[in-house]
Design brief:
The protein has about 240 residues and is mainly α. The chain has 2 domains: about 160 residues, no CATH class; about 55 residues, no CATH class. It has 12 helices and no strands.
Length: about 240
């Protein structure tokens, strides 16, 4: 199926759209390689096999949520907490999905549903950029998602295979990896004073939960407090702005 682009882009075949999507996502695919290796290595250190790591990446496909899940992994595994933590981390997909839904005119019902299963930050950003130039074709979206998905699964499995060779992750600084990654995510989310309030509320709730409850409940407490603060700020701005 060819797409008639409305902003100067020539009509392309589905294969050309797919190829262009694949090319567009290459820089993002390269950028996530070290994170995939790191996730696989840390998961192996927690006792997960390469097969289990591959299944996690293939079924979940959410790097930040997988990082949190590996950080929280214990024996026996706290399944309810792992699920709630992943849900909390991935709630931003609701906003990304709502934003992208305006761009999915050429998508059929099943293409919409299946496409959202592969919606990650990089795919969302590149799809929005493509839509700003014209029509977002399902094949272009598939090109974005297919390469990034395969790339992530392959490199996390590779990391799990190589992980057992690293006897002491702390000696390599791997124990700081989660902190460093999420500090980077915080900087990327900065939008001014409102962001500072959200961060402060999240940090205060996490510290209080860690002191009062122990364990790993501080992850959920911080996430819920941050989202609640962001919601209240949005409500307040809606009432005060004309």
């Amino acid at each position: 199926m060819a797409a008639a682009h409305s902003s100067g882009l020539a009509a392309l075949s589905a294969w050309d759209e797919f190829r262009q999507g694949t090319v567009a996502v290459v820089p993002a695919a390269v950028a996530v390689v070290p994170f995939g290796l790191l996730l696989g290595a840390l998961a192996a250190q927690k006792g997960l096999s390469p097969l289990e790591v591959g299944l996690m990446s293939g079924l979940m496909f959410a790097g930040s949520a997988q990082m949190v899940a590996v950080d929280l992994w214990r024996e026996p595994a706290p399944w309810a907490l792992l699920g709630l933590a992943a849900l909390t981390i991935n709630l931003r997909h609701l906003m990304m999905g709502a934003s992208l839904s305006r761009r999915l005119g050429p998508f059929g019902p099943w293409q919409r549903v299946f496409g959202m299963a592969f919606l990650v930050d990089e795919v969302w950003a590149l799809a929005e950029r493509r839509a700003a130039l014209g029509l977002l074709h399902p094949a272009y979206y598939a090109g974005l998602a297919a390469l990034l998905y395969a790339n992530w699964v392959v490199w996390t499995i590779t990391g799990a295979i190589l992980g057992p060779a690293i006897e002491n992750p702390a000696a390599w600084g791997f124990d700081f990896a989660f902190t460093a990654i999420f500090l980077g995510l915080i900087v990327a989310f900065w939008r001014g004073r409102g962001t500072a309030l959200v961060m402060a509320a999240s940090a205060a709730a996490a510290v209080a939960a860690n002191a009062g409850l122990g364990g790993v409940w501080h992850v959920l407490a911080g996430g819920i407090a941050g989202m609640a603060t962001a919601f209240l700020l949005a409500m307040w701005r809606g009432k005060t702005e004309p």
